Amino acid sequence: MLGIATLVAGCASAPEEDGEAGGEKLDFLPCMVSDAGGFDDKSFNQLGFEGLQAAAEELGVEYKEVESQAETDYASNINGLVDQGCNAIVSVGFLLAPAALEAAQANPDIDFISIDDPIDQDGDGETDAENIKPIIFDTAQAAFLAGYLSAGVTKTGAVGTFGGANIPTVSIFMDGFKQGVDHYNEENGTQVKVLGWDGTDGSFTGGFEANDTARQIAQGLIDQNIDVLLPVGGPIYQSAAAAIEDSGREIALIGVDADVFETDPSVGPLLLTSIRKGMDVGVHEAIVEAGNGEFDPTPFIGTLENEGVGLAPFHDWESKVPAELADKLDELRQAIIDGDIAVESYLAG
Fold it and tell me: Which one of 82, 116, 159, 345 is least enclosed by Cβ atoms within 10 Å?
């Protein structure tokens, strides 16, 4: 339904049994370092970690992961994995890019996989090291559909969004969301407002933690009579859900990265949909390729066309979404794929 993404893209304990590859134990150690959201964020980091686990199981090897507590941990965590003999290192998130690049350049024999950043620090359109594979997502395309959907179900005429930090991998969701609402207004002669993002700046918590700041920003948007809310930034959706529940109003929540209905059933009744990124399969495939000696640094860019991004099902909200609106989303998805509708983003080309 509705372009659902079919991609299923301290150290933890390693598997106790050694696997076999071609009858012999594979000499390969894949590793991952999280951003400050942690591997239990039920979203961004968790999805990437699931890809690592699936790849290690398929290859029959152990793995290592290290969880960052703050941005200051990124470089030391990556270098620590280098020192532990990792053959492939996945860095989860835009903010890890500088540390990942430095380590990749210093260790050309290690394969690096960068989630959510092309690692093009000099801006020449090319990844800055030959041993880095970017896994990135044009989530504006799927967010456009979520914005159109939100404008179609709102009863108050106002929808809201806020993010963890004003960085491209966060604002790309907000850009697409606003474009989708604007498109709905143009087609239907309505004036649905988007609060929390004006196309350049908006409401941000300054981090990716579920905390009072996130809850207060969500509450501020709720106080402005929004009835659909898109929080972008891993676990900050938990604070948004708490504010929605306290309001006593019917306010729809939109998840990001994973299908949050599946990863966190506690907020399931609130979820209109989720803007899905196939990080788990992207990581899985890249690690398996590296483990088999077939590492390919060609960037993967998830789009609606290759199903790297998409909308999750409506789940509990399905009966509240008019059939004609659901059909329209299918039409819009195809129009974006065909190039009849251009969704602007920093990855669009």
Answer: 82
Query: Which strands, in side-by-side order, build the sheet including 309-311?
Result: 193-195, 158-163, 228-232, 252-257, 271-277, 309-311
Two tokens, residue 103: 């380590």
Tell me the domains of the chain and their CATH numbers: 30-137+279-302 (3.40.50.2300), 140-277+308-338 (3.40.50.2300)
- At residue 314's C-alpha, the angle toward residues 115 and 185, to 5°, is 90
pLDDT category, 44, cuts 50, 70, 90? confident
Q: Is the pLDDT of residue 214 over 90?
A: yes
Give pLDDT tens digits for 150-167: 999 999 999 999 999 999
- Dist. CA 132–CA 112, nearest whole Å: 5
Is residue 180 a contact partner of residue 146, using CB atoms and an 8 Å limit?
Answer: yes
Determine the pLDDT at residue 23.
52
pTM of the model: 0.85
Cβ atoms of 166 and 201 within 8 Å: the answer is yes
Inter-residue contact 244 to 270 (CB < 8 Å): yes
Give pLDDT, residue 349.
62
Q: Would you say 115 and 47 are in contact if contact means Cβ atoms under 8 Å apart?
A: no
As a whole number of angstroms, the distance between CA 169 and CA 164 comes to 10
What single string gives the DSSP state of each residue in 259-306? -HHHH-GGGGGGEEEEEEE-HHHHHHHHHHHHHTT----PPEEE-TTT
Count CB atoms within 10 A of the CB of residue 320.
11
CA–CA distance, 193 with 157 (Å, rounded to integer): 6
Residue range 99-117: mean pLDDT, rounded: 96
What single string gives the DSSP state of each residue in 296-335? --PPEEE-TTTTSEEEPP-GGGGGGS-HHHHHHHHHHHHH
What percent of the chain shows pLDDT beyond 90?
Answer: 79
